[in-house]
Amino acid sequence: MTELTKNELLLQQQFRESLIIDKYDPQLAGWGTRRFRPDRSESMEDALTWNVFRSLRQIKPSTWIGPLFRKAFHLDLPYSVNDVQVSLWRRVTPPKDIHLPDLYYEIDLIIETKEFVWFLLAKYKSDIQIQPYNQRQSNQILRNIDVGLEYTKHRDFYFSLLFVDTYHTPYGQILTKQYQQSEEAILQDLPHRTTEIARLKGLSTLRWKAVHEVLKDIYLFNKCPFEKFVASQAGYWLYQQIEATETYE
Fold this sequence. Notes:
Elements: H1 6-17, H2 41-56, H3 61-73, E1 85-92, E2 105-112, E3 116-122, E4 130-133, E5 136-139, H4 140-151, E6 156-163, H5 170-181, H6 183-189, E7 200-207, H7 208-221, H8 225-243
Parallel strand pairs: 3-6, 6-7
Antiparallel strand pairs: 1-2, 2-3, 4-5
């Protein structure tokens, strides 16, 4: 294991202090290998993902996955969620045609069953990253789509950019809408996906505010006291983070 610098140890401690659930889960043991930005935007994005979706994993899937899907795609979820798996920061092997030996690609959030796969890329006070990928410049949205179409195999595939507002993530939401409107725009950058593109059933932008609304509805209308408590705790914490951006409406 790589030895952590003093600054990385401090950031690791700050991250744990920002968690409201499962602060000492073994999955966080490798946190020091992750890269941070000076403004802590990346660590806060991960804190949002952890606090919200680790909390939602404590709640019956049919209570929140359908409503969240509806907010993202404006459609009722056409699949059963009886066998659903929700994974945070899952390490996925890149497609074989990508010249990145001995590397993996980490997906912020995967919601999947035997019928569909939904990738979510989480952003807070930052925009998507642009960097070399498969011997050319690319962005995080394209990489998620490319890796997702390989990962999903025979299943339907969906992708959502989860962000707080257009001020902090302007390029990401513009590109997502561009790809949403034009399959040709995707194939222009992913020409090797002409067959697999048929599995792509939906692209969307989804605000953290919409996730808060799902949590609020669970708190207001769910009859299970434990699930109401979990939703209340996560919802209040998420509201504070959204309000901190001064864009919550």
